Amino acid sequence: MTDTEPLRLPEMPLHDPFVVADEETRTYYLYTSNEPSASGVEGVGTMVYRSRDLREWTRPVVVFRTGEQEGLWARDGGWAPEVHAWGGRYYLFTTLHDESRPLPVPPAGRWGTPFQLPNHARGTITAVSDSLLGPFTVVDPTGPTPPAHLMTLDGTLHVDPAGQPWMVYAHEWLQTVDGTIEAVRLAPDLTATIGDPVFLFKGSDASWLGEQIPAGVPHQLAPYVTDGPQLHRTPDGGLLMLWSTYEKNTAGADGTVSGGYVQTYAVSKSGALQGPWEQRRPLVRDDSGHGMLFRAFDGRLMMILHRPFENARGKLYEMRFEGDELRVVRQCTDLDGDGTGV
User: Fold this and answer.
1) Which of 3-12, 38-47, 122-131, 283-292 is least confident?
2) Among 5, 29, 122, 272, which one has the highest count of C-beta atoms within 10 angstroms of its own C-beta?
3) Residues 222, 212 contacting (CB under 8 angstroms)
4) CB 304 within 8 A of CB 283
5) Taking a C-beta distance cutoff of 8 angstroms, is the pair 32, 51 a contact?
6) Which pLDDT value is given to residue 256?
7) What percent of the chain has pLDDT over 90?
8) Which domains does the chain have, with CATH numbers?
9) What is the pLDDT of residue 296?
10) How far apart are CA 298 and CA 281, in angstroms?
11) Taking Cα atoms as reference points, which of 268, 101, 103 lies closest to residue 176?
């Protein structure tokens, strides 16, 4: 295959996908962590594929590299990149970490959990560019956007009805045991936080997860993973949050979690970010997750996620709302090349 031949989703390394449907150019920009074998560029960072039809994609272009950022506090990770238009510019959120920088263990029971595990510096940074193709430059190289003493990841942008921007992020189960979703207000230019984080919900609030804990594992000691929040307004004015977790939460001595990755969601019927949040049952299983919703140019509501967790590829689903319930219409196998169905 030559560099000019289009790619299809089964050929595209793709973890934690995020799509920007740019109306001006009628182009879909699909952001993911840099994969040197695909981009031809070494280093930790973000790359982007482009398409006019969600079927054929260009070879990826690198838009951000940690190695090009002077004085950056961490250079590993590059997880879960998202790009948001704000104030006439484009803002990249991506998660970095530094395993050589241990974090102090917070007091037990911060959100009602009994203990914490060893952890290290991890958090989402904010970078800015005048173009969807970058290059993106870190706003504050000295630390992540959420509080640096918290082990966090997967920050996403939410703007409330009053126009207040927030970063919504996952607080790692490695630090909390029962992982949480939290939010922190952002300054109008997204360059700093305002006030303390706000707790939204914890992983164990999803009652169906409790059904999956293996026999003999104390419920309060089972780790609950929270990953990949992304928010979307429902037609009736509610607020929906996609998030991902593991269906069977058993942890090994090395901190790994076993069990199937799943795409699930929660709804705030009040429409307020602060909730209360009602947990719904998973949308897609089969080791799938970290999805996001976007509108295709033909008006369809689409969800893209990755599957499987290792050596991931992008999968596309047509979605619909039934009140405040989100439903899968079909997997778009004509686009993602996967004939296995939902």
Assistant:
1) 3-12
2) 122
3) no
4) no
5) no
6) 63
7) 78
8) 9-336 (2.115.10.20)
9) 98
10) 28
11) 103
Nearest to 248, CA basis, from 238, 233, 258, 262: 258
CA–CA distance, 155 with 167 (Å, rounded to integer)? 6
CA 308 from centre of chain: 15
Which sign does the torsion angle of CA 301, 49, 287, 146 carry? negative
| Sign of the dihedral defined by the CA atoms of residues 229, 231, 234, 238, in that order | positive
pLDDT at 223 over 90: no
pTM for this entry: 0.92
Q: What is the pLDDT of residue 116?
A: 57
Q: What is the 3-state secondary structure (H, E, C) of the chain?
A: CCCCCCECHHHCCCCCCEEEEECCCCEEEEEEECCHHHHCCCCCEEEEEEECCCCCECCCEEEEEHHHCCCCCCCEEEEEEEEEEECCEEEEEEEEEEEEEECCCCCCCCCCCCCCCCCEEEEEEEEEECCCCCCCEECCCCCCCCCCCCCEEEEEEEECCCCCEEEEEEECHHHHCECEEEEEEECCCCCCEEEEEEEEEEHHHCHHHHCCCCCCCCHHHCCECCEEEEEEECCCCCEEEEEEEECCCEECCCCCEECCEEEEEEEECCCCCCCCEEECCCCECCCCEEEEEEECCCCCEEEEEEECCCCCEEEEEEEEEECCEEEEEEECHHHHCCCCCC
Grade residue 111 by pLDDT with cuts at 50, 70 and 90.
very low
